[in-house]
């Protein structure tokens, strides 16, 4: 048996890919529930005082982005990748995700008066940007402190 026929082991985290796929399937389901007049309750957003499975889609995507950042950048940082190149990659990816979100929010009519700037992908782009910058510029202790401070700030705000 030749070694050329054996596939190289993938460096991807299969569980994260599976979770991403399930989350995308959930997103498609809640965005297309069939008849908008007769929606099964888990496919609707909850009132302010509760939650449904639909309300978990966005937090799941934020979690996926957060887990993906160290996986994507850790190897480059260890290999001594240029900080400039990493920042350019972060800015480029942020702008692409933000632009795709604007495009999808405007499609198919592209009315500037009805364009929703704080859409889901735009928010994910902003989360990705700040989380990436924090990951590249801080140690784990500082990241934990920032996370705790943000949770306390959110708790006080709500």
Description:
- The protein is mainly α and 158 residues long.
- Helix content is 63%, strand content 0%.
- The chain has helices spanning 14-31, 57-78, 83-106, 120-137, 140-157.
- Helix 1 runs antiparallel to helix 2 (57-78).
- The longest helix is centred in the middle third of the chain and has 24 residues, at 83-106.
- The chain is globular and about 55 Å long.
Outline of the structure:
It contains five helices and no strands. With 158 residues, the chain is mostly helical.
Topology, pairings included?
Blueprint: H1 14-31, H2 57-78, H3 83-106, H4 120-137, H5 140-157
Instruction: Indicate the mean pLDDT.
Output: 88
Strand percent estimate: under 5%
Q: Provide the helix percentage.
A: 55-70%
Largest sheet: none
Oligomeric organization of the protein chains: single chain
Distance between the termini: 62 Å
Task: Tell how many strands the DSSP assignment holds.
Answer: 0
Radius of gyration: 19 Å
List SSEs in N-to-C order: HHHHH
Poorly predicted regions: none
Overall form: globular
Number of helices: 5
Structural class: mainly alpha
């Amino acid at each position: 048996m030749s070694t050329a026929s054996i596939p190289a082991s993938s460096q991807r985290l299969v569980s994260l890919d599976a979770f991403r796929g399930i989350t995308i399937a959930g997103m498609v389901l809640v965005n297309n529930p069939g008849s908008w007049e007769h929606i099964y309750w888990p496919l609707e957003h909850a009132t302010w005082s509760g939650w449904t499975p639909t309300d978990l889609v966005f937090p799941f995507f934020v979690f996926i982005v957060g887990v993906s950042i160290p996986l994507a950048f850790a190897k480059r940082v260890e290999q001594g990748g240029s900080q400039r190149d990493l920042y350019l990659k972060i800015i480029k990816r942020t702008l692409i995700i933000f632009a795709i979100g604007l495009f999808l929010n405007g499609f198919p009519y592209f009315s500037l008066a009805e364009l929703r700037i704080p859409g889901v992908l735009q928010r994910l782009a902003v989360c990705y940007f700040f989380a990436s910058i924090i990951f590249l510029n801080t140690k784990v202790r500082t990241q934990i402190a920032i996370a705790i401070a943000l949770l306390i700030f959110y708790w006080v705000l709500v």
